[in-house]
Amino acid sequence: MDFTLYLGDYAYSSWSLRGWLLLDAFGVPFTTRYANMNTAAFETLRAEMAPSRLVPALAVSDGVRAPVIVWDSLAIAETVHDHFPQAGIWPVGASARPVARSIAAEMHSGFTALRNACPMNMRRAYKGFVVSDDVQADLARLSELWGHARARNTSDGPYLFGAFSAVDAFFAPVASRITTYNLPMAEDDLSYVAAVLGHPSVRRWRAMGIADQHLQSHYEFDYDDRPNPHDPEVTGTAVTGKPSTNAHCPFSGKDVAPDSLVEVQGRVIGFCNTFCRDKVAADPMAWPEAAALLR
């Protein structure tokens, strides 16, 4: 069974982030089709994934019949779970799984004040955002749901039900919003936010958002910036004219391009294109293929 995932802007598309996590975080093999929203390329992408109108969408193919298009992130979660029941998409347990599904469904359909006032922007960390009463009510509900999940959790791990599961994928964009807008939350909740944003798949997604650099003006605000507390400890710098330790791109196997080199702590590694260069520069240790070359 082959999966193709259709995605929009890495920095801004909260729904795309959920779709990515529902596969990447669980080791499910897939390929991607990507375009920035509000572009001609995105309209081409939408034609490919019809009848879905929005990202994410998942094309499921058995190699014989025409692919089945699955849209809506909840439907994608259940489809992936059907094909990979041992992957851990949903937590195990007669009480944990239905509670996780309930919480994910509420996130999927609710929190409109928070969504509208604080659109996802994984590149930015602001200061000076004023929290309205409606946004504060959404934050209080988040804290209530997360506390309810933690009270029922009997497994080890920093996520709502121990190990990372689909419910955490659904809250990943919220974790990003809390950081971007410096929203007030209790210490237990901020610890959960840190765990979600520290997940390798979330880190990889954010690194791609930094590398993409496409701006959507309606997601950008004029608040002052502040340091992002979840920035990686190790970053890289794009360089040219230096010899790389590798001759072939660790992602594609193609020859290293002279304009696609990254220096990390004095070590230069190369890639076949500038996007891979920049996503690795943003967070080198989030990419196992790159981290292996740096050890």
What does this protein structure show overall?
The protein folds into 3 domains: 2-83, Glutaredoxin (3-Layer(aba) Sandwich), CATH 3.40.30.10; 96-204, Glutathione S-transferase Yfyf (Class Pi), Chain A, domain 2 (Up-down Bundle), CATH 1.20.1050; 234-295, no CATH class. It is built from 11 helices and 9 strands. The chain has helices spanning 14-24, 40-48, 73-83, 96-109, 112-117, 133-152, 166-180, 187-197, 200-212, 274-282, 288-294, and strands at residues 2-7, 31-34, 57-61, 68-71, 126-127, 224-225, 237-239, 261-264, 267-270. The chain has a 4-stranded mixed beta sheet, covered by helices on one side. The chain has a 3-stranded antiparallel beta sheet with strand order 7-8-9, with helices on one face. The chain has a two-stranded antiparallel sheet with strand order 5-6. β3 (57-61) and β4 (68-71) form a beta hairpin. α4 crosses α7. The mean pLDDT is 95.
